[in-house]
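Re: the pair you flagged

First of the two:
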Amino acid sequence: MGRQEPRMRISERALTVWRLYGWISAAITLLVGAGVTTLAILFDWSVWFIIGAAVALVLEIILFVFVLPTLKWKRWRYEVREEEIELQHGIFVVTRTLVPMVRVQHVDTEQGPILRKYRLATISISTAATLHQIPALDIDEADELRDSISALARVAEDDV
């Protein structure tokens, strides 16, 4: 019998943030597309360059603003237990990771300007081998979780 998936979800405001990131990316693609269109007109290139730029922009908006943020949010789950942290994420390939508390070296919360505006933070959990992150948590929940993981990691370290 397989283990149940983690219970906790990240903040629903993550959808807004990820969609905003999608719009920012689309704006950059729009600028590149405008440059390609200008060059196509100036140098009398094929109309396919202009069509390609437009199609790329439309696909990027559909994927990175509407489709992927929703799928990403639905898959992202986590759970902190006394002896481990379980993370589940991924869109097409779902990855489930168990991080033993005895391996946790330190825990940080991070906030860029967009996350700060939406009162969200990302938790980074460092082990000797790698860095694991839980994105877009409510800032109060992130602070509480950081302190909780830190305390559990110290207890696990004392038990070894």
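Second of the two:
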Amino acid sequence: MEKIRSTTVLAIKHNGMVAIGADGQATLGNTVAKSNVKKIRKLGDGKVVTGFAGSTADAFTLLDRFDEKLSNYSGNLKRAAVELAKDWRTDRYLRKLEAMMIVADKSEVLVVSGTGDVLEPDNDIASIGSGSMYARSAALALKKHASDLSAEEMVREGLTIAADICIYTNHNLVVEVVE
């Protein structure tokens, strides 16, 4: 069984705004399986936006669990992320899930992994997935040399550059600004 490869997710906090976006491609072997997968989801009454990379079914399971944690901890993003990461690492069922997540609210961006990591990214730029290093590199350059752009514009441009380089990333972008 060939592994599905896909996804570039990029989040940037810049000038008091947080934006997160993803491409829409899912690849099976050397074939594009789907070109318009929606990898960005709003949770917590729209106050939290998440992006995921990895197995879609696994990511949906994690998104549901994260939404529960947000409810349990009154929308506290960091606490919900830490509690999800603990469960993900220790729960016999959850630890088999293959995905990563970026979670963001209006004030912070976090990367959550199945190894128990909850990372606050350097430079307020987070990226995951196949084209993540291309998108991250572009975002770092944009923040340094085009700081007049908004967070949303930087996410769009970073993902576009990644899509131009990475064969597992396409130009079908979904970008959300966290309000």
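The longest strand covers residues 8-14.

-B.
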